[in-house]
Amino acid sequence: MCKNISMIYLIYGTQPVKIKNRIKKVIKEFFGNEEVDQNSIYDLDLDTDTIFNVLDEINHFSLTSPKKIINVKNAKIFESQLKNKFSKKEIDEIINCLSNIDVDTCVIFSLNASKVSTTNEIYKIINKDGKIFQFKEITKEEWPSVAKDYFSKRGITLDDETIEELVNRTNLDVSFFINEAEKLILYKGNQISLQDIKDLVPNSLETDSFKVLNALLEGNKSQALKVYNDLRIKNIEVITLIYMITSSLIYALNVKNLQKMGKSNDEIAKETGSSPGRVFITNRNFKKYSIDFLLNTISKLNELDRKIKHSEIDRFYGFELFILNF
How many CB atoms lie within 10 A of CB 264? Predict the structure, then answer.
C-alpha cells in the first residue's frame, strides 16, 4: 500500500450542520472532477460498529470503483486514549492500518463533541499526516457577526437591529437560524426588514418562557397566564416550559450564590459560561427574591414535573396553579 498523507480526516465539534457540510465538501474534493459515486461511500457508525470493522473496510478491495470513502460517524473512540480500551497488539494493528492507507481510499471520522483527546493514538496520526477540523459552538457575542456574514455572502445587507431580532428569535440554534434565514430569503429576496423578521420568524421558546417568568417576577400573573395560553395555542408542551423556567431559576440561584461569595459580575459570567450583561439583568430581575425562595420554587417545579409525568395531575391545570400560587 502507498501512504497518502491527506486522505484521513477527523471532523468534530458542537455544530452538527457544519460537520455535515464539511463531510460533504471532503467527499466532493476527494472525487475531484469526477461525479460522486454513492456506491463508493461506505457509512459506518462506531455506536454499532467497531474500529476493526473500519480497518476491514479500509483493507477491502473494491471491484466496482478504484476510489472509496469510509465515512465513520460517532467516533467516540477519540474521547480517550486507545490503551484504555485495547491491548498493545490491537493498538499496533490500528496504527499500522491507519498509517498506511491506500491512495484511493479516504477515511473520515466525525464526532459531535466539544473536545477530543489529543493524546489519542489515532488523533496523533491524523494530526501529523491528515487533516483535523473543529467546529466550536458560536458564543452569544459572536452570533451577530456570524449572522450578518451569512447574509453578506448572499449579497444581502441587514442592519444591526434586524440581525439582533433574528438571532434572538432563533435562540442561538444553527439549524433553526439557517432554516429561518433561507425562508426569509425565499420570501423576501434581498429586501429583508425588521418587520419581516417579526412577521415571519416565530419567537423562540426560550424567549416565551422568559416572558412567563418575567411577568411572574413583576407580580403580573394575568400577563403570565396570557403568555402561557398563547403558548398552549402553539402546542408548546408544559413539561418543556417547566424545564426552561427551572433552568432560568437555577441560573439565577448560581448567580446569587456566587455573588454571596463576593464574586464580580465578570467573574460570575466566566464561571457560569454566560455574559456580564446576562448576570446584570439576572441581578436586576431577581433582586427582591431570596436564595430560599428560588430553592423552594425550583422544588415546586420539580414536584409538578414529577406529578405530570406520573399522571397525578393534569398538566395544564397544574401549571396554571403554579402561576396563580407564585
Answer: 12
Q: In angstroms, how far is CA 36 from the centroid of its own chain?
A: 29
State the pTM of this model.
0.55
Cα–Cα distance for residue pair 197/183, rounded to 1 Å: 10
In this structure, is the dihedral angle defined by the CA atoms of residues 110, 111, 112 and 113, taken in order, positive or negative?
negative
Give the rounded distance of the alpha carbon of 298 from its chain centre: 25
> In this predicted model, what pLDDT tens digit does every residue of 121-151 receive, in sequence order?
999 999 998 999 998 878 888 899 999 999 9
> Quick check: 101 and 1 in contact, CB under 8 A?
yes
* Cell numbers given for 106: 479516504
Residues 96/102/106/110 CA torsion (nearest 10 deg): 0
The answer to whether the beta carbons of residues 3 and 102 sit under 8 Å apart is no
Residues whose CB is less than 8 angstroms from the CB of residue 285 and which lie 6 or more positions away in sequence, other chains included: 214, 217, 252
For 36, half-sphere exposure in the C-beta direction (CA atoms, 13 angstrom radius) is 12
117 is written with which cell numbers?
483527546
Report the C-alpha gap between 252 and 295 in whole angstroms.
Answer: 10
Contact in structure between 226 and 320 (CB atoms under 8 Å): no
Residue 8's closest CA among 76, 118, 95? Answer: 95
Q: How far is CA 100 from CA 9, 21, 68, 82, 88, in A?
A: 14, 27, 15, 18, 18
DSSP notation for 129-160 = HSEEEEEPPPPTTTHHHHHHHHHHTTT----H
- CA–CA separation, 109 vs 33, rounded Å? 23
In this structure, the dihedral spanned by the alpha carbons of residues 323, 295, 219 and 171, taken in order and rounded to 10 degrees, is -80
Mind listing the pLDDT tens digit for each residue in 38-79? 888 999 999 899 999 999 999 887 666 778 999 999 999 999
